[in-house]
Amino acid sequence: MWAVREVTAALARRLAGIPAVWVGGEIHSVRATKGQVYFTLVDGHQLSCSMSQQAWDALDARPPDGARVEAEGRVEFWAQRATLSLRVARLELAGEGVLLRRIEAVRARLQGEGLLDTRRKRPLPAVPRRIGVVTSRQGAALQDFLAVVETRLPGVEIVLVDVPVQGEMATGGVARALALLNERGRVDVIVVTRGGGPLEDLMAFNSEMVCRAVAGSRAPVVAAVGHERDVTLCELVADVRAATPTAAATAVVPSRVDVLSRLARRDERLRQGLQRAYAAADAATMAARGRMSAALWATAGRGEMRLAGVEARMQRGLAVREARAAMAVAARDARTRAGVTAALVRADAALAGRQALLTALSPFAVLGRGYAIVADEHGAAVTAAAALRPGMTVDMRFADGSARARVTDVEAVDGAGVPPGAAPPG
Protein backbone atom coordinates (compact mmCIF):
# COMPACT_ATOMS: atom_id res chain seq x y z
CA MET A 1 0.00 0.00 0.00
CA TRP A 2 1.22 3.50 -0.86
CA ALA A 3 1.12 6.37 1.53
CA VAL A 4 -0.27 9.70 0.30
CA ARG A 5 3.12 11.36 0.54
CA GLU A 6 4.64 8.54 -1.46
CA VAL A 7 2.12 8.99 -4.25
CA THR A 8 2.52 12.78 -4.41
CA ALA A 9 6.30 12.47 -4.19
CA ALA A 10 6.33 9.99 -7.05
CA LEU A 11 4.17 12.32 -9.14
CA ALA A 12 6.44 15.24 -8.32
CA ARG A 13 9.51 13.29 -9.42
CA ARG A 14 7.81 12.19 -12.61
CA LEU A 15 6.60 15.72 -13.50
CA ALA A 16 9.94 17.28 -12.63
CA GLY A 17 11.43 15.53 -15.60
CA ILE A 18 9.00 17.08 -18.09
CA PRO A 19 10.66 19.89 -20.13
CA ALA A 20 8.94 23.19 -20.96
CA VAL A 21 5.70 22.62 -22.87
CA TRP A 22 3.27 24.64 -24.98
CA VAL A 23 -0.31 24.57 -23.77
CA GLY A 24 -3.27 25.98 -25.69
CA GLY A 25 -6.61 27.12 -24.31
CA GLU A 26 -8.84 30.08 -23.49
CA ILE A 27 -7.56 32.53 -20.93
CA HIS A 28 -9.88 33.43 -18.04
CA SER A 29 -9.88 35.06 -14.62
CA VAL A 30 -6.78 37.19 -15.10
CA ARG A 31 -5.69 38.88 -11.85
CA ALA A 32 -2.47 40.49 -10.64
CA THR A 33 -0.99 40.56 -7.15
CA LYS A 34 2.47 41.07 -5.61
CA GLY A 35 4.35 41.19 -8.90
CA GLN A 36 2.64 38.09 -10.30
CA VAL A 37 -0.21 37.61 -12.77
CA TYR A 38 -2.48 34.64 -12.29
CA PHE A 39 -4.96 33.23 -14.78
CA THR A 40 -6.62 29.98 -15.85
CA LEU A 41 -6.34 28.15 -19.16
CA VAL A 42 -9.56 26.39 -20.12
CA ASP A 43 -9.97 23.72 -22.79
CA GLY A 44 -12.58 21.38 -21.40
CA HIS A 45 -10.30 21.02 -18.35
CA GLN A 46 -8.71 23.86 -16.40
CA LEU A 47 -5.08 24.58 -15.62
CA SER A 48 -3.92 27.25 -13.17
CA CYS A 49 -1.12 29.43 -14.50
CA SER A 50 1.16 32.15 -13.19
CA MET A 51 3.43 34.64 -14.90
CA SER A 52 5.68 37.44 -13.69
CA GLN A 53 4.26 40.95 -13.93
CA GLN A 54 7.31 42.03 -15.91
CA ALA A 55 6.76 39.34 -18.54
CA TRP A 56 3.06 40.15 -18.70
CA ASP A 57 3.73 43.86 -19.21
CA ALA A 58 6.19 43.05 -22.02
CA LEU A 59 3.46 41.33 -24.13
CA ASP A 60 2.70 42.95 -27.49
CA ALA A 61 -1.01 42.72 -26.73
CA ARG A 62 -2.56 41.63 -23.49
CA PRO A 63 -5.19 39.02 -24.27
CA PRO A 64 -8.72 39.87 -23.13
CA ASP A 65 -10.76 37.44 -21.10
CA GLY A 66 -11.92 34.53 -23.30
CA ALA A 67 -9.19 34.90 -25.90
CA ARG A 68 -7.54 31.79 -27.32
CA VAL A 69 -3.85 31.71 -26.32
CA GLU A 70 -0.79 29.47 -26.41
CA ALA A 71 1.39 29.45 -23.32
CA GLU A 72 4.92 28.09 -23.00
CA GLY A 73 5.99 27.14 -19.50
CA ARG A 74 7.15 24.62 -16.96
CA VAL A 75 4.76 22.25 -15.19
CA GLU A 76 4.87 22.65 -11.42
CA PHE A 77 3.42 20.21 -8.92
CA TRP A 78 2.83 21.12 -5.28
CA ALA A 79 3.08 17.82 -3.53
CA GLN A 80 1.63 18.91 -0.18
CA ARG A 81 -1.72 19.78 -1.83
CA ALA A 82 -1.33 17.65 -4.90
CA THR A 83 -2.05 20.64 -7.15
CA LEU A 84 -0.75 21.17 -10.66
CA SER A 85 0.08 24.56 -12.25
CA LEU A 86 1.97 25.99 -15.18
CA ARG A 87 4.69 28.61 -14.71
CA VAL A 88 4.39 30.59 -17.96
CA ALA A 89 7.42 32.19 -19.60
CA ARG A 90 5.83 33.15 -22.97
CA LEU A 91 2.24 33.86 -23.91
CA GLU A 92 0.87 34.42 -27.42
CA LEU A 93 -2.56 34.88 -28.92
CA ALA A 94 -3.74 31.97 -31.04
CA GLY A 95 -6.67 31.38 -33.41
CA GLU A 96 -9.23 34.02 -32.53
CA GLY A 97 -6.62 35.55 -30.33
CA VAL A 98 -4.78 36.84 -33.39
CA LEU A 99 -7.99 38.45 -34.58
CA LEU A 100 -8.59 39.92 -31.16
CA ARG A 101 -5.10 41.40 -31.17
CA ARG A 102 -5.80 42.98 -34.55
CA ILE A 103 -9.10 44.36 -33.26
CA GLU A 104 -7.41 45.73 -30.18
CA ALA A 105 -4.85 47.58 -32.30
CA VAL A 106 -7.62 49.21 -34.36
CA ARG A 107 -9.56 50.05 -31.21
CA ALA A 108 -6.50 51.80 -29.76
CA ARG A 109 -6.12 54.00 -32.86
CA LEU A 110 -9.81 54.89 -32.95
CA GLN A 111 -9.80 55.60 -29.23
CA GLY A 112 -6.79 57.86 -29.61
CA GLU A 113 -8.61 59.92 -32.24
CA GLY A 114 -11.75 60.23 -30.12
CA LEU A 115 -13.95 58.24 -32.51
CA LEU A 116 -15.24 56.08 -29.62
CA ASP A 117 -16.15 59.12 -27.52
CA THR A 118 -19.85 59.05 -26.61
CA ARG A 119 -20.01 62.86 -26.81
CA ARG A 120 -19.73 62.78 -30.60
CA LYS A 121 -22.81 60.57 -31.02
CA ARG A 122 -25.80 62.19 -32.70
CA PRO A 123 -29.51 61.72 -32.02
CA LEU A 124 -31.67 59.85 -34.51
CA PRO A 125 -34.47 61.60 -36.42
CA ALA A 126 -37.85 61.35 -34.68
CA VAL A 127 -39.65 60.12 -37.82
CA PRO A 128 -37.31 59.26 -40.72
CA ARG A 129 -38.65 59.57 -44.25
CA ARG A 130 -35.89 57.57 -46.01
CA ILE A 131 -33.81 54.89 -44.33
CA GLY A 132 -30.60 53.59 -45.89
CA VAL A 133 -29.80 49.94 -45.17
CA VAL A 134 -26.38 48.37 -45.74
CA THR A 135 -26.56 44.57 -45.64
CA SER A 136 -26.89 41.44 -47.78
CA ARG A 137 -30.12 41.03 -49.68
CA GLN A 138 -30.04 37.28 -48.96
CA GLY A 139 -29.46 37.61 -45.22
CA ALA A 140 -32.08 36.96 -42.58
CA ALA A 141 -31.11 40.24 -40.91
CA LEU A 142 -32.72 42.24 -43.73
CA GLN A 143 -36.00 40.34 -43.51
CA ASP A 144 -36.15 40.77 -39.74
CA PHE A 145 -35.48 44.50 -40.08
CA LEU A 146 -38.07 45.05 -42.85
CA ALA A 147 -40.75 43.06 -41.01
CA VAL A 148 -40.46 45.24 -37.91
CA VAL A 149 -40.39 48.46 -39.94
CA GLU A 150 -43.52 47.48 -41.85
CA THR A 151 -45.31 46.67 -38.61
CA ARG A 152 -44.32 49.85 -36.79
CA LEU A 153 -44.57 52.46 -39.53
CA PRO A 154 -45.86 51.21 -42.89
CA GLY A 155 -44.90 53.18 -45.95
CA VAL A 156 -41.50 54.49 -44.82
CA GLU A 157 -39.06 54.41 -47.76
CA ILE A 158 -36.13 51.96 -47.58
CA VAL A 159 -33.01 52.44 -49.72
CA LEU A 160 -31.11 49.13 -49.72
CA VAL A 161 -27.47 48.78 -50.76
CA ASP A 162 -26.77 45.07 -51.23
CA VAL A 163 -23.21 44.19 -50.08
CA PRO A 164 -21.33 41.07 -48.98
CA VAL A 165 -21.20 41.01 -45.18
CA GLN A 166 -18.28 38.57 -44.76
CA GLY A 167 -15.18 37.62 -46.65
CA GLU A 168 -12.55 39.64 -48.46
CA MET A 169 -15.05 41.81 -50.39
CA ALA A 170 -17.09 42.81 -47.34
CA THR A 171 -14.84 45.55 -45.96
CA GLY A 172 -14.65 47.64 -49.14
CA GLY A 173 -18.28 46.92 -50.02
CA VAL A 174 -19.65 48.19 -46.72
CA ALA A 175 -17.42 51.30 -46.78
CA ARG A 176 -18.45 52.15 -50.37
CA ALA A 177 -22.13 51.60 -49.55
CA LEU A 178 -21.93 54.12 -46.71
CA ALA A 179 -20.27 56.67 -48.99
CA LEU A 180 -22.88 56.08 -51.71
CA LEU A 181 -25.81 56.61 -49.36
CA ASN A 182 -24.29 59.84 -48.06
CA GLU A 183 -23.59 61.19 -51.54
CA ARG A 184 -26.74 60.15 -53.44
CA GLY A 185 -29.18 58.44 -51.12
CA ARG A 186 -30.69 61.55 -49.45
CA VAL A 187 -31.41 59.39 -46.41
CA ASP A 188 -32.20 60.56 -42.88
CA VAL A 189 -30.50 57.62 -41.13
CA ILE A 190 -28.38 54.60 -42.12
CA VAL A 191 -28.59 51.09 -40.67
CA VAL A 192 -25.61 48.72 -40.97
CA THR A 193 -26.60 45.19 -40.04
CA ARG A 194 -26.00 41.45 -40.43
CA GLY A 195 -26.67 38.30 -38.44
CA GLY A 196 -24.37 36.57 -35.97
CA GLY A 197 -21.44 34.28 -36.72
CA PRO A 198 -17.90 33.42 -35.67
CA LEU A 199 -15.41 36.22 -35.13
CA GLU A 200 -13.79 35.58 -38.51
CA ASP A 201 -17.11 36.32 -40.26
CA LEU A 202 -17.55 39.63 -38.38
CA MET A 203 -14.05 40.99 -39.05
CA ALA A 204 -15.22 43.36 -41.83
CA PHE A 205 -17.16 45.27 -39.18
CA ASN A 206 -14.03 45.45 -37.00
CA SER A 207 -11.94 46.88 -39.84
CA GLU A 208 -10.55 50.38 -39.66
CA MET A 209 -11.97 51.23 -43.11
CA VAL A 210 -15.55 50.47 -42.14
CA CYS A 211 -15.19 52.19 -38.75
CA ARG A 212 -13.92 55.38 -40.38
CA ALA A 213 -16.72 55.25 -42.98
CA VAL A 214 -19.26 55.02 -40.15
CA ALA A 215 -17.60 57.87 -38.25
CA GLY A 216 -17.50 60.07 -41.37
CA SER A 217 -21.16 59.57 -42.31
CA ARG A 218 -23.22 62.75 -42.58
CA ALA A 219 -26.38 60.84 -41.68
CA PRO A 220 -26.50 59.22 -38.22
CA VAL A 221 -25.67 55.50 -38.25
CA VAL A 222 -27.26 52.61 -36.35
CA ALA A 223 -25.14 49.44 -36.26
CA ALA A 224 -26.56 46.01 -35.43
CA VAL A 225 -23.97 43.32 -36.16
CA GLY A 226 -24.18 39.76 -34.89
CA HIS A 227 -26.04 38.56 -31.84
CA GLU A 228 -26.43 40.43 -28.58
CA ARG A 229 -23.17 39.08 -27.17
CA ASP A 230 -21.21 40.14 -30.28
CA VAL A 231 -19.81 43.69 -30.11
CA THR A 232 -17.90 44.98 -33.12
CA LEU A 233 -15.88 48.17 -33.41
CA CYS A 234 -18.21 49.75 -35.96
CA GLU A 235 -21.02 49.45 -33.41
CA LEU A 236 -18.91 51.37 -30.90
CA VAL A 237 -18.21 54.09 -33.48
CA ALA A 238 -21.85 54.27 -34.63
CA ASP A 239 -24.25 56.80 -33.17
CA VAL A 240 -26.47 53.99 -31.86
CA ARG A 241 -25.68 50.31 -31.25
CA ALA A 242 -28.53 47.84 -31.50
CA ALA A 243 -28.17 44.27 -30.25
CA THR A 244 -30.09 42.76 -33.20
CA PRO A 245 -31.58 43.84 -36.55
CA THR A 246 -35.00 43.81 -34.86
CA ALA A 247 -33.71 46.16 -32.16
CA ALA A 248 -32.24 48.39 -34.88
CA ALA A 249 -35.65 48.69 -36.57
CA THR A 250 -37.25 49.52 -33.22
CA ALA A 251 -34.62 52.20 -32.53
CA VAL A 252 -34.91 53.80 -35.97
CA VAL A 253 -38.65 53.69 -36.63
CA PRO A 254 -41.24 54.74 -34.05
CA SER A 255 -44.49 52.88 -33.96
CA ARG A 256 -47.46 54.44 -35.70
CA VAL A 257 -49.34 54.58 -32.40
CA ASP A 258 -46.42 56.38 -30.76
CA VAL A 259 -46.21 58.85 -33.63
CA LEU A 260 -49.93 59.63 -33.48
CA SER A 261 -49.79 59.94 -29.70
CA ARG A 262 -46.75 62.21 -29.92
CA LEU A 263 -48.47 64.35 -32.54
CA ALA A 264 -51.58 64.59 -30.40
CA ARG A 265 -49.53 65.69 -27.39
CA ARG A 266 -47.67 68.25 -29.48
CA ASP A 267 -50.95 69.50 -30.94
CA GLU A 268 -52.38 69.94 -27.46
CA ARG A 269 -49.26 71.71 -26.23
CA LEU A 270 -49.34 73.94 -29.31
CA ARG A 271 -53.02 74.75 -28.79
CA GLN A 272 -52.45 75.59 -25.13
CA GLY A 273 -49.40 77.61 -25.99
CA LEU A 274 -51.34 79.59 -28.60
CA GLN A 275 -54.13 80.25 -26.11
CA ARG A 276 -51.65 81.49 -23.56
CA ALA A 277 -49.91 83.58 -26.19
CA TYR A 278 -53.23 85.11 -27.31
CA ALA A 279 -54.23 85.88 -23.73
CA ALA A 280 -50.85 87.42 -22.98
CA ALA A 281 -51.01 89.40 -26.22
CA ASP A 282 -54.50 90.72 -25.38
CA ALA A 283 -53.39 91.74 -21.90
CA ALA A 284 -50.27 93.36 -23.27
CA THR A 285 -52.35 95.18 -25.91
CA MET A 286 -54.80 96.54 -23.34
CA ALA A 287 -51.97 97.64 -21.09
CA ALA A 288 -50.21 99.26 -24.02
CA ARG A 289 -53.40 101.06 -25.04
CA GLY A 290 -53.82 102.40 -21.52
CA ARG A 291 -50.25 103.57 -21.37
CA MET A 292 -50.51 105.07 -24.84
CA SER A 293 -53.74 106.93 -24.00
CA ALA A 294 -52.27 108.33 -20.81
CA ALA A 295 -49.13 109.29 -22.62
CA LEU A 296 -51.13 110.99 -25.39
CA TRP A 297 -53.18 113.00 -22.90
CA ALA A 298 -50.07 113.98 -21.02
CA THR A 299 -48.36 114.85 -24.26
CA ALA A 300 -51.37 116.88 -25.42
CA GLY A 301 -51.43 118.84 -22.13
CA ARG A 302 -47.76 119.53 -22.31
CA GLY A 303 -48.16 120.47 -25.96
CA GLU A 304 -50.89 122.98 -25.20
CA MET A 305 -48.84 124.58 -22.44
CA ARG A 306 -45.80 124.62 -24.68
CA LEU A 307 -47.89 126.09 -27.52
CA ALA A 308 -49.25 128.87 -25.27
CA GLY A 309 -45.74 129.73 -24.14
CA VAL A 310 -44.50 129.72 -27.70
CA GLU A 311 -47.41 131.92 -28.79
CA ALA A 312 -46.73 134.45 -26.00
CA ARG A 313 -43.04 134.50 -26.85
CA MET A 314 -43.87 134.93 -30.53
CA GLN A 315 -46.20 137.86 -29.79
CA ARG A 316 -43.60 139.56 -27.65
CA GLY A 317 -40.99 138.93 -30.28
CA LEU A 318 -43.26 140.26 -33.02
CA ALA A 319 -43.99 143.45 -31.04
CA VAL A 320 -40.29 144.02 -30.48
CA ARG A 321 -39.54 143.32 -34.10
CA GLU A 322 -42.36 145.62 -35.26
CA ALA A 323 -41.02 148.47 -33.08
CA ARG A 324 -37.53 147.86 -34.35
CA ALA A 325 -38.81 147.70 -37.93
CA ALA A 326 -40.75 150.96 -37.51
CA MET A 327 -37.68 152.71 -36.12
CA ALA A 328 -35.57 151.28 -38.90
CA VAL A 329 -38.10 152.39 -41.53
CA ALA A 330 -38.26 155.90 -40.05
CA ALA A 331 -34.48 156.19 -39.97
CA ARG A 332 -34.22 154.79 -43.46
CA ASP A 333 -36.97 157.21 -44.66
CA ALA A 334 -35.14 160.20 -43.13
CA ARG A 335 -31.89 159.08 -44.73
CA THR A 336 -33.68 158.56 -48.03
CA ARG A 337 -35.35 162.00 -47.91
CA ALA A 338 -32.06 163.72 -47.07
CA GLY A 339 -30.34 161.81 -49.85
CA VAL A 340 -33.07 162.66 -52.35
CA THR A 341 -33.00 166.36 -51.37
CA ALA A 342 -29.21 166.50 -51.71
CA ALA A 343 -29.45 164.69 -55.04
CA LEU A 344 -32.08 167.17 -56.30
CA VAL A 345 -29.93 170.12 -55.26
CA ARG A 346 -26.97 168.62 -57.07
CA ALA A 347 -29.13 167.85 -60.09
CA ASP A 348 -30.51 171.43 -60.18
CA ALA A 349 -26.99 172.85 -60.00
CA ALA A 350 -25.81 170.52 -62.73
CA LEU A 351 -28.84 171.36 -64.88
CA ALA A 352 -28.25 175.09 -64.46
CA GLY A 353 -24.63 174.68 -65.45
CA ARG A 354 -25.58 172.66 -68.50
CA GLN A 355 -28.25 175.18 -69.44
CA ALA A 356 -25.72 178.01 -69.22
CA LEU A 357 -23.30 176.00 -71.33
CA LEU A 358 -25.99 175.19 -73.87
CA THR A 359 -27.01 178.81 -73.98
CA ALA A 360 -23.43 179.89 -74.51
CA LEU A 361 -22.91 177.32 -77.23
CA SER A 362 -26.30 177.81 -78.94
CA PRO A 363 -26.12 179.40 -82.36
CA PHE A 364 -29.18 181.46 -81.42
CA ALA A 365 -27.10 183.27 -78.78
CA VAL A 366 -24.93 184.68 -81.61
CA LEU A 367 -28.06 186.16 -83.28
CA GLY A 368 -28.29 188.64 -80.45
CA ARG A 369 -25.02 190.16 -81.56
CA GLY A 370 -26.37 191.08 -85.05
CA TYR A 371 -26.01 187.81 -86.90
CA ALA A 372 -28.72 185.87 -88.77
CA ILE A 373 -29.23 182.28 -89.89
CA VAL A 374 -30.11 181.85 -93.58
CA ALA A 375 -32.05 178.75 -94.76
CA ASP A 376 -33.13 177.74 -98.25
CA GLU A 377 -36.67 176.84 -99.22
CA HIS A 378 -36.07 173.31 -97.96
CA GLY A 379 -35.07 174.53 -94.51
CA ALA A 380 -31.40 173.64 -94.93
CA ALA A 381 -28.92 176.16 -93.52
CA VAL A 382 -27.02 178.11 -96.13
CA THR A 383 -23.43 178.35 -95.00
CA ALA A 384 -21.79 179.71 -98.21
CA ALA A 385 -22.74 182.40 -100.76
CA ALA A 386 -21.89 180.00 -103.54
CA ALA A 387 -24.98 177.96 -102.53
CA LEU A 388 -27.27 180.92 -103.42
CA ARG A 389 -28.67 181.79 -106.82
CA PRO A 390 -30.41 184.91 -107.91
CA GLY A 391 -34.17 184.52 -107.63
CA MET A 392 -34.00 182.00 -104.70
CA THR A 393 -36.24 182.56 -101.73
CA VAL A 394 -34.47 182.27 -98.38
CA ASP A 395 -35.62 182.45 -94.74
CA MET A 396 -33.55 184.51 -92.33
CA ARG A 397 -33.67 183.86 -88.56
CA PHE A 398 -32.86 186.81 -86.27
CA ALA A 399 -32.66 186.98 -82.51
CA ASP A 400 -36.11 188.49 -82.20
CA GLY A 401 -37.86 186.91 -85.24
CA SER A 402 -37.57 185.80 -88.87
CA ALA A 403 -38.04 187.25 -92.39
CA ARG A 404 -38.26 185.94 -95.98
CA ALA A 405 -36.20 187.51 -98.79
CA ARG A 406 -35.48 186.95 -102.46
CA VAL A 407 -31.89 186.82 -103.69
CA THR A 408 -31.21 189.40 -106.39
CA ASP A 409 -27.47 189.26 -106.55
CA VAL A 410 -24.74 186.97 -105.22
CA GLU A 411 -21.22 188.18 -104.54
CA ALA A 412 -18.63 185.81 -103.12
CA VAL A 413 -15.57 186.88 -101.07
CA ASP A 414 -12.28 185.05 -100.37
CA GLY A 415 -11.19 183.66 -97.11
CA ALA A 416 -9.98 187.04 -95.87
CA GLY A 417 -13.40 188.60 -96.46
CA VAL A 418 -12.37 190.58 -99.60
CA PRO A 419 -14.58 190.44 -102.69
CA PRO A 420 -12.90 189.18 -105.84
CA GLY A 421 -11.16 191.91 -107.84
CA ALA A 422 -11.07 194.31 -104.86
CA ALA A 423 -7.83 195.38 -103.22
CA PRO A 424 -7.34 194.24 -99.63
CA PRO A 425 -7.46 197.06 -97.10
CA GLY A 426 -4.17 198.90 -96.73
Sheet having the most strands = 5 strands, mixed, barrel
Which shape, going by the Cα principal axes?
A: rod-shaped
Strand arrangement in the largest pleated sheet: 1-2-3-5-4
Average of per-residue pLDDT values? 87
Q: Beta fraction of the residues? A: 15-25%
Q: Give the strand tally.
A: 13
Q: Give me the CATH superfamily of the largest domain.
A: Succinyl-CoA synthetase domains
Would you identify the regions where 5 or more consecutive residues have pLDDT less than 50?
none
Number of domains: 4
Assembly classification:
single chain
Helix content: 40-55%
Rounded to an integer in angstroms, the radius of gyration calculated over CA atoms is 67 Å
CATH fold assignment of the largest domain = Rossmann fold
The chain-level structural class is: alpha/beta
Quickly give the CATH architecture of the largest domain.
Answer: 3-Layer(aba) Sandwich
Distance between the termini: 221 Å
Please identify the top-level CATH class of the largest domain. Alpha Beta
Number of helices: 10
**Could you state the order of secondary-structure elements as H and E?**
HEEEHEEHEHEHEHEHEHHHEEE
